[in-house]
Amino acid sequence: MRFLFVALLLATTPQTPAQKAKELSGQKSWEELYLAFSSGDAKAVPAEQRATVSGALVKGCQALMKDDTVMAYSMGERAILYEESAPAIRCLASAARKTEQRAAAESALVKGVTLFPKDGSFPLELGKLLLEEQDFVGAQAAFEKVPPRAKESAEAKRLLQKARQQTLQEDAARSEATRISRRLGSSAPQPGQTRPASAMGGEEASVVSLETRPGMSIRGPKLGFESGVDARGMRVRSNSRFVISYFNNDRDFGQRADYEGHIVEILSDAYHFTRGVLGEARETPVSVVLYTGQEFATAFGPRVARVVAGKYFENAIAINNAKELTKETKATIIHEYVHATVADICGGGDGDMVRLPLWYNEGLSMFVEWKYLDVPGPDLEMVDQMRTVLADPALSLISVKQMMKVSPINTPSATMAYAISGMAVQELMRREGAHRLLTLTRDVCKRQVPFEAALKTHYGMTLEDLDSEIEKIVRQR
Ligand SMILES: [Zn+2]
């Protein structure tokens, strides 16, 4: 009887999310705690309660670190959505490292360094991670960020020395490589040779391998690039991430060193930026072909040449000779780079084009592009146009559901369709973060789960739900 009374009492006094989180973590009911907060919008919890929910999830993350790292990671990931506290970021980063998700660990640590500059543990751990990846330049930059008075400072100094020495050795190896490649005259294409730069035989193989080691990172335009000849006999400059060539082989890298330097800088930015936003970037090299305006117009048509700065096409990023590399031009290059990344995540080739809805693919690129431009989404003029459409009962916004059958570019208003695609991905990101988004992407690409089924599994949403969210957002903005 008493038992029943208590149960009734519990049922009639609804707990707040904070109370529930506290109670479950007090009981160490980690599984239930996770289930209670594993999905749904963190913003639906009142702002003043989010820190408590986050704190409870962090406790779970820490408690499970030894025995169930995957679960610990998931809890850390949720904790951060409720509050980006230092312990939450720390726990997520450790769990990511233990589950071999290096990109996720790196992006969590970068977040820690940015949000808590006085905390020495974030740059120290980031530096160690980069050392392991043999990114000595990046490691140095990280160790230098450890505040001199932090308790991590002595260890950071010692490791900084180590990273510096490694950089010097790398530089020596690189200039040696350049010397050897000059002696071999590798910049002149030899007739009949149709081997990729990374697969050259003889002494040159070792020259190239210095630069194609996985995890090697470029931070500046001059770093880590070597000359070679690709499969078509084109002169290329490559490192582990980019293989750059000119559409017209007669052009010389020396003639346009300045322009090329800028492009390399943007591409390197694109790599780091994409990795920051999505937690991953493309790890296999992507071809980048530099066109003059004229060449680009001939290849892709004059209309396209006037409006785009680049295009991801047949496994390569084609770059239109933009006169000025403005922020918008750079954003386009980032957009194309995201396509290259998604293609890679999808298993390479054209897998992404075959399996992913085109709107989703474009939406991913739009989303990262907006992040890069630091804008909240489509510009106000576009939002106004959408509102006008919504206000007219005779019209309706193009929906992602419709775009399952028609690609955004082939809709009556392509720009609007791209914007809506971007907003759809933005909404998915807002709900569950990058890890979930990429899990869905992999399910569709690699496990061949139909997109709508994956959306249901990972977000509990249908395409109609997503469309009505977008309408809501348009009305609110
Ligand atoms: Zn695109």
List the helices and strands and how they pair.
Blueprint: H1 2-12, H2 17-26, H3 30-37, H4 47-64, H5 69-82, H6 86-98, H7 102-115, H8 121-132, H9 136-144, H10 153-183, H11 202-212, E1 226-229, E2 235-238, E3 242-246, H12 257-278, E4 286-290, H13 293-300, H14 302-307, E5 310-313, E6 316-319, H15 327-345, H16 351-355, H17 358-373, H18 380-391, H19 414-446, H20 451-459, H21 463-476
Parallel strand pairs: 3-4, 4-6
Antiparallel strand pairs: 1-2, 2-3, 5-6
Helix pairs in contact: 2-3, 2-4, 3-4, 4-5, 4-6, 5-6, 6-7, 7-8, 8-9, 8-10, 9-10, 10-11, 12-15, 15-17, 17-19, 19-20, 19-21
The structure holds zinc ion (ZN).
Biased composition (Basic and acidic residues): 147-158
Protein name: Peptidase MA-like domain-containing protein
Biased composition (Polar residues): 187-196
